């Protein structure tokens, strides 16, 4: 099997001045994951490391770029899933952890559970020796400004929810195993303890070697209502291509509950898609030594991996 990786940086609205940073972020993440796959690494390692890179990038609503809850704190959700045996690990409402996706993988591999939340997740992180970071280290000036703006009497928090930024990755490795990973800071000014779609298996992501893997982004409550990640794979089970399946699932979500979002998916045969119903979604994919990427509907820039790597290095 030829390895493939697809990543997204969140479906929503991306302001012009942030487009270059978002494009660069997803490109670097895809190349990082593909490098692991090309060396014979697992799909699980590839999606984890791709998401870690984006969690460390303040352009995205994950890790150090996360939006703030109603109290001005960062609370993050993440999930990872192995298509080989349907193992999954997730965390929700975690604070003071730089890379929630790493903690999610530890939940998958070191416990008999699938999801740990808030103080339980933090206690587990401490038991595993995961370093904590001061909460303020995860707060960017942009997130703080958005939080303050939403507190104003005449503000419309729903307007800011169009600017989402969840990150995710899906991959298939040379052994034919698929995996997915998704991480987010959630909704700006959300209630303390709110858990969105990302940490919920079948909503924020799903991976099954018999079908493929998918990671979602968009309005979390809408995604949960239709179980978007698993719905996309259901359509693939019915014979649809990744592109058709993602489009059908997104259309269903918009028709039934009025929700917008995005989906990245890779099939068990290595076909892939990056589809969204929002104005923009930064994405990047690597297959057969070719890097493809885009932000706007219909945009698809293509270049050899070697050229992309050299431009990043310079």
Automatic annotation (TrEMBL):
<dbReference type="InterPro" id="IPR029055">
    <property type="entry name" value="Ntn_hydrolases_N"/>
</dbReference>
<dbReference type="InterPro" id="IPR000246">
    <property type="entry name" value="Peptidase_T2"/>
</dbReference>
<dbReference type="GO" id="GO:0004067">
    <property type="term" value="F:asparaginase activity"/>
</dbReference>
<dbReference type="GO" id="GO:0008798">
    <property type="term" value="F:beta-aspartyl-peptidase activity"/>
</dbReference>
<keyword id="KW-0645">Protease</keyword>
<dbReference type="Pfam" id="PF01112">
    <property type="entry name" value="Asparaginase_2"/>
</dbReference>
<dbReference type="InterPro" id="IPR033844">
    <property type="entry name" value="ASRGL1_meta"/>
</dbReference>
<feature type="binding site">
    <location>
        <begin position="194"/>
        <end position="197"/>
    </location>
    <ligand>
        <name>substrate</name>
    </ligand>
</feature>
<feature type="site" description="Cleavage; by autolysis">
    <location>
        <begin position="165"/>
        <end position="166"/>
    </location>
</feature>
<dbReference type="GO" id="GO:0033345">
    <property type="term" value="P:L-asparagine catabolic process via L-aspartate"/>
</dbReference>
<feature type="binding site">
    <location>
        <begin position="217"/>
        <end position="220"/>
    </location>
    <ligand>
        <name>substrate</name>
    </ligand>
</feature>
<dbReference type="GO" id="GO:0006508">
    <property type="term" value="P:proteolysis"/>
</dbReference>
<keyword id="KW-0378">Hydrolase</keyword>
<protein>
    <recommendedName>
        <fullName>Isoaspartyl peptidase/L-asparaginase</fullName>
        <ecNumber>3.4.19.5</ecNumber>
        <ecNumber>3.5.1.1</ecNumber>
    </recommendedName>
</protein>
<comment type="similarity">
    <text>Belongs to the Ntn-hydrolase family.</text>
</comment>
<keyword id="KW-0068">Autocatalytic cleavage</keyword>
<feature type="active site" description="Nucleophile">
    <location>
        <position position="166"/>
    </location>
</feature>
<feature type="region of interest" description="Disordered">
    <location>
        <begin position="294"/>
        <end position="314"/>
    </location>
</feature>
<dbReference type="GO" id="GO:0005737">
    <property type="term" value="C:cytoplasm"/>
</dbReference>
